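Board notes (copied after class):
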Amino acid sequence: MKTTRMVLGVAALLLLGVQGCDDKKSSPFGKAAPRKPGAKRPPPRRPPQAPGRVKRRKSTLGDEDFAESIQTNRDPFRSYLGEFANPIRRTVRLQRKILLPRYGLDELRLIAVVTGRVRARAMFRDPKGLGISVKRGDYISKNAARVKQILPDKVVVQIQEQSEDTQRTADRVIELHSKAVREQRVN
């Protein structure tokens, strides 16, 4: 079986090779017949021109052809969404360290004040019993109240309140001892 295939393959190659041996010199590209000796070379062929056709001038490009113009050159990567949409006003969120950010100012209790030094300190306790020491300028609670002033028996904090159009600040006083505790001590 293998030998018959091999013999058929060799025979096919020989037939193709013999067919290619020919005395005539022909080209598959259809070249012109060879010229006779002493004959003049024919003029080169030019494509026929239309009767009303005008010769085109070569254009030269200048710097003004490459200059950017809003009317003629549009930026394909520019987003025009901002021109048609109303601008969205975003609130600026400052990145500052806030102490006790889980609790509101009403939940924190002032338990100690240390004064008499250069930097006075106050201690607040959260509902779970954790105490934390603060100094002037620190931010405490959920609403980021800034410690404005530490006095011997109270702490003044500054709260920024935001409404739709305005932003205002309000001072709130947190006393060391509530009124009920003071009344008990007096009696």
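Comment from the instructor: The two ends are 125 Å apart (CA to CA). The domain at 98-175 is CATH 2.30.30.830 (SH3 type barrels.).
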